[in-house]
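User: quick one, fold this
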Amino acid sequence: MCVNEMIRLASQIQALGLPEEQEEVLMVQAADLVRFKESYPGNLELVDPFSKVSIVSSEAITAGVCFYGSEDKGALKLMLGETRRLKRLKRVKELWFVYVSGAGTGRESLNGIIDKHRIKQLCSRVFVLNYNAASVQLL
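Assistant:
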């Protein structure tokens, strides 16, 4: 992982003066974002890494990126609602859904989540980020 970028984002998060629980959520989001940026095959620029849905720019496209790991089940509806809001406000042209996988996460559960929440209808691109292997796959 790009340690310098993570340290820079962590410093910015700590400067926000948020309660510890919110700070921890943003730290996890920042780590996912840095790993995704490293693994993404193109060039990504961080536009707004600290909103509920991270905003990035790639090849003249501004995208809202919704990160989801198996431990985030309660937050999924909130994130998907925020992605709809961002698109309606025209802050982003595309919505990307990134399933963050690690040890023990299966493709069956991912397919169930995608179908249940109609993610392929809502999002322009769906990725699987293997956090441990630092690889990303477009579905």
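User: anything notable?
Assistant: The two ends are 23 Å apart (CA to CA).
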